[in-house]
Amino acid sequence: MDDTHAPLIEDLTRRRGVVLLVGAADTGKTTFARQLLAAAIGAGKRAAFVDADIGESTVGPPTCVGLKWINDPADLDDLSHADRLQFVGSIKTSGLVLQQVVATAALVDQARNEVDLVVVDTSDDVSGVTGQTLKYHKTELTRPEVVVAFQRGEELAPVIGMLRRFFGVEVEEAPVSPRIVSATPHERSADRAKHFEAELTPPLQAWRVRPTVFAPTLPAGLDPTRLDAMLVGLQNGEGGTLGLGVLQEDDGILRVLTNHGEGMRGLRLGSMRIDLETYAVEPVRLREVMFGL
Ligand SMILES: Nc1ncnc2c1ncn2[C@@H]1O[C@H](COP(=O)(O)OP(=O)(O)OP(=O)(O)O)[C@@H](O)[C@H]1O
Ligand SMILES: [Mg+2]
Fold first, then answer.
1. Is residue 3 in contact with ligand 1, taking CB distance under 6 Å?
2. What atom in ligand 1 is closest to the CA of residue 33?
3. Residue 89 is assigned to a structural domain of this protein
4. What residues have CB less than 8 Å from 122, skipping those under 6 apart?
5. 132, 158, 175: which is the final residue of a domain?
6. Most-buried pick from 118, 159, 186, 256 (CB within 10 A)?
7. Minimum CA distance residue for ligand 1 atom 10
């Protein structure tokens, strides 16, 4: 293991509160999160990992923010099994900034009072209006003790300046290891498909669903064929997510295919369709599904 970040990690293990990790794709955010969490529990701290990267998920399936309690090293080997999930509904933030910020804030709030250190991994949207708005509101709601910004050049300068100016937050700039080899888009989508497959492993159970259990509510008279193959979040009735499901329309009857039907109280419509043969996803505009617009 490379110890470029060792002094920073040592410093952070002595703090309390939220550490927010930001950086473009393949800048070592998740590797740093693991190292920091290992060091924190090694120092006898209670820790939690909130994975707010909805595209390249580590905790729980893509399209969800996941929380994992980190009590001992074994938990770090089992990050894919989330202790809590919040459905966002897409692998891309665009158009879903609100959902993503709220999901992250909800899990950070749950973790904050339970542990000493909450490490938050974020998506690679770090620039443009969407990326900046996302980082702004995540910082606003998660109130980090420290933001760690991973950059190769000056690509994070606008975000770092913004967070310091508007929140007075401490931002630690961290170098990116030159040894990191970037993943290709093909490797990324293959990896994502594996994560979806782990969540939607056959044989899936089919549960008949009434049109009244959705959020947002389905418009009256909606042609149910439009919902076929739509990704949904199965909600537990306490604001949290049990897991993912996929809608199936068959002769006017709507079912959800899932491994998490037990205890489901409602369904949140995602903004993607998923192919259960290949686990490939395609974005969908909800407005189009609901109103044909
Ligand atoms: N110091 C390092 N030396 C060599 N390889 C590294 C180092 N840090 C990370 N890596 C590797 O580089 C890749 C990207 O690292 P990591 O997943 O931590 O980055 P990330 O910023 O979380 O990426 P993503 O945008 O995909 O979430 C991984 O395969 C990881 O194992
Ligand atoms: Mg990552």
1. no
2. 18
3. yes
4. 20, 21, 22, 29, 52, 53, 104, 134, 135, 138
5. 175
6. 118
7. 180
Return the structure tokens found at 105: 């804030």
**Structure tokens, 84:** 């809590």
pTM score, whole prediction: 0.96
As a whole number of angstroms, the distance between CA 53 and CA 183 comes to 16
State which ligand 1 atom lies nearest to the alpha carbon of 34: 18
CATH number for the domain spanning 100: value is: 3.40.50.300
The string of pLDDT tens digits covering residues 172-229 is 999 999 999 999 999 999 999 999 999 999 999 999 999 999 998 999 889 999 999 9
Tell me: the pLDDT tens digits for 14-52? 999 999 999 999 999 999 999 999 999 999 999 999 999
Which residue, 19, 5, 15, 26, is CA-closest to 188? Answer: 26
Decide if 182 is inside a domain. no
Domain that holds residue 221: 200-291
**Beta carbon of 53 within 6 Å of any ligand 1 atom:** yes
- What backbone phi and psi angles, to 5 degrees, belong to 140? -60, -45
Give the three-class secondary structure for 256: strand
161 and 257 housed in the same domain: no
Nearest-angstrom CA–CA distance, 17 and 193:
34
Same domain, 25 and 149: yes
